[in-house]
């Protein structure tokens, strides 16, 4: 029998808390990780950077026991360990906060957390611990709520809470702020800094490079599955970090030249809808109008009605009267999503897995699903597969979608690459109206710039665009005007140049509205709060 390999020594300094050496992971002929070395030390926040498809998520799954490496070893305090499954990783003190939520939809918050907790910790004891941690860290959750009723931001909180409840030595965070507001992100940063100061190690994956520069003292950079460098992020700029990730300078979004908006193309007229579920948010008297060539940005904290508003715009929820929603002057409140697509509208939902795309189906079949109601039909009543494959090919080429194989399943793509596919699929259809929820969730800096530029260019060709986003930097970069959705109420939009992040953030947090007693309309205080007064 061959002797067990000797543990690799640290590259420099004391023995790392965890190490990964010579990690190779192959999926058939595709090499996702190619001889990666990584050392993670106690008391540090270490960034793992790379463009979409660079191999970050694969490496993280190896460290969390979800995948085993084809070659290479993982060490804990200098000893080689085998992480056969997540239970083995958790037993060594490794916790992970996933970008794509690993939650059971039909279970409650407490039941989902209990799945990874000791069997003895259930019921009231678990609920009390959830409440206490939420109070300490500002990560409030209702243990009795079913996951299917929660927003993306609330689901992210479950992932964070159940990781912290395990008292981990190493916390792996994959895009943890992608669905958080600035205020929620600040609260999370305080938690992470406290964990670091307690001597824990944190491995931080984020495409928000300003966060990396603020939090992290070391960064390892991957490109095409290989380590291409390391640095101290605090000594770099966001632009230089992005250049290291992609191997070239990242193009900045080019602002549109001054132009006149066209005719109004999308209207909501005093739309009110009851909450579709017990814990969902009702929409209350929402009005908006978007002209051709205009981008309306809608800001808001997760859980304030964004999914409900998207569903009302897309036709997944129908209005009480047809006139409450109008596309190019035509009442469509009673029509579903396919009928609205036939009228020239396009839609990108927040959740790419399961809502925007079916993970088990190929990219071409996912393209077929989004076009079957609007494209030429075959004698079998379906879009010809050749046309679907051609559409998928065009999206892949135009939006640089990185993939393995000619027509892989959507679920095999990294999160950022799948996002590029679903956004590109809608933009290449040249819709007259586009509603897009969280357009750059989980994509790298280069891909975010590309997607935002594509949205700007589409508006420049006369499309009326609604962008629902929790990323205020994104909204201020591309939106002509910004409104805030809070508790199912929409503030009147104001020009982006006439407001500020602070003013928008105030309304996102539910700033008190006053002034109705002075004879103002209910919307007037919100408009005054949004407008930045010199």
Automatic annotation (TrEMBL):
Residues 514-534 are annotated as: Disordered. Keywords: ATP-binding, Nucleotide-binding. This is ABC transporter ATP-binding protein. The keyword Iron-sulfur does not apply. Residues 18-249, 266-512 form the ABC transporter domain. InterPro entries: AAA+_ATPase, ABC_carbohydrate_import_ATPase, ABC_transporter-like_ATP-bd, ABC_transporter-like_CS, P-loop_NTPase. SUPFAM superfamilies: P-loop containing nucleoside triphosphate hydrolases (SSF52540). Belongs to the ABC transporter superfamily. The lineage of its organism: Bacteria, Pseudomonadati, Pseudomonadota, Alphaproteobacteria, Hyphomicrobiales. GO terms for molecular function: ATP binding. CDD domains: ABC_Carb_Monos_I, ABC_Carb_Monos_II. It comes from the Bacteria. It comes from Methylorubrum zatmanii.
